Structures are given as C-alpha cells and as structure tokens.
Amino acid sequence: MDPRMAAELTKRVQGTPEQHKLNIMIGDFVKAELPYFDVCISNTPYQISSPIVFRLLSHRPLFRVAILMFQREFALRLVARPGDALWCRLSANVQMYAKVDHIMKVGKNNFRPAPQVESSVVRIVPIDPPPPLRFEEFDGLTRILFSRRNKTAHANFLAKGVMELLDRNYKTWCSEKNQIIPDDFAIKEEVGSILESTGFRESRAAKMDIDDLLALLSAFHEKGIHFA
C-alpha cells in the first residue's frame, strides 16, 4: 500500500471500533509474503497489473474471489474468449487457472485528476482445485503459439530458436529419465508429427481454446517434449 494512503486510512479509523480490525501492511505486493485471505479488493497499480494477477493466482491457500480494477484494455484482455480480437497469451494463461468476468466500466471522469485511460472492474475466481500442471509448461507453450497469434501452429514452431529450445529440453528430459535418444531422432520431424496427429498443425492460437491448448501440451509431454 502507498504509505500516504496507509497514513490516511489509519487516521480515519483511529478511535473507532474498526481500529482493532485493521492491519495495514506496507510493502511490495508482488514480493511480500502474503497472509491468508479469502477476498481481495483492489484498485491496482496499472503498471504492474500482470504481476499482480499471477501473484494472486500462485498464492496458497487459494483465495475465494478477487475484485480488481485495471486499465480497461488489460481488463478486456483478461476476459477475452477464443476468436475475440483481444484473445491472447494473457487471456489463456489466466483462464487456465481462474474464471474471469467483467463487472463494470469505470470512466476516467470518476478520478481526480482524470487519468489518460479508461478503467474496468473484473472478478477473478480461482479454479479449485487448480489444474495439476506446472504454470511454466503451459506458459512456455502459449509463448510460442501466441508469438504470432494469427499464424499457424506449425509456422510458429518453425520460428527461430523454438526447435533449439525443444531439442535441448528433450535431451535434458531423456538424461533425467535415463532414456536413450534414438539415433534417428530429429526434433523438427517429431514436432511436425505431433502437430499432424493432434490435428493442430494448421490451427491458429487466435482461435484455440483452453482445451485445445491442454490437448496439444499433453501430446508433447507424452513424447517427452517440454517447454520449461
């Protein structure tokens, strides 16, 4: 919390019954050790909106609900659906772990001084229990697919550096599992085979939903190919 706001809030509750119910913590929300909570309500600092969302979703035990205000464009990306113009890596990564709803618009004229941007309030409800999946793996896949959201999955996997990353990860996985790498193994052919067999070769991230992304990730994992 902003120290100035903390001081003002403390002053307002002094001498009231609420004084003993209020615990003000001043610090960096993204880095601080968070206490247990079941409800989070915040007008978030817009410049760190994404770190705040993922800090909340990684917190354990899971909270019940968060009501947060963001810059409107960010909020609309959070709630976008496959096929929407704003469906993106952020949308997929958040909706993998939470149900997100747009509650209301907040015009800039509601603030003094008025900011340059419009705002929106969203509701975030974590999926409980959360998917048994490392976030880094899902994020690694969406990073590739959404790098060019309107290109085919096959084209994105052929992008510079992607094959090298997957080949390195595969060899690391084989080493950890004491698996022998076949002499004729070629990461490019293996990736192409997976995309073909799953039917996602010509799919575009702009229209792929969470189930599609999970199915593709599972197919890669079955072949020992990982993204983180």
TrEMBL record:
This is rRNA adenine N(6)-methyltransferase. Specifically dimethylates two adjacent adenosines in the loop of a conserved hairpin near the 3'-end of 18S rRNA in the 40S particle. InterPro entries: KsgA/Erm, rRNA_Ade_methylase_Trfase_N, rRNA_adenine_dimethylase, SAM-dependent_MTases_sf. Pfam families: RrnaAD. Its EC number is 2.1.1.-. It is an enzyme of class 2 (transferase). Keywords: Methyltransferase, RNA-binding, rRNA processing, S-adenosyl-L-methionine, Transferase. It comes from Thanatephorus cucumeris (strain AG1-IB / isolate 7/3/14) (Lettuce bottom rot fungus). It catalyses: adenosine(1779)/adenosine(1780) in 18S rRNA + 4 S-adenosyl-L-methionine = N(6)-dimethyladenosine(1779)/N(6)-dimethyladenosine(1780) in 18S rRNA + 4 S-adenosyl-L-homocysteine + 4 H(+). It comes from the Eukaryota. The keyword rRNA processing applies. The keyword S-adenosyl-L-methionine applies. S-adenosyl-L-methionine binds at M1, D28, N43. Gene3D superfamilies: 1.10.8.480, Vaccinia Virus protein VP39. Transmembrane segments: none annotated. Residues 1-128 form the Ribosomal RNA adenine methylase transferase N-terminal domain. GO terms for molecular function: 18S rRNA (adenine(1779)-N(6)/adenine(1780)-N(6))-dimethyltransferase activity; RNA binding. Belongs to the class I-like SAM-binding methyltransferase superfamily. rRNA adenine N(6)-methyltransferase family.
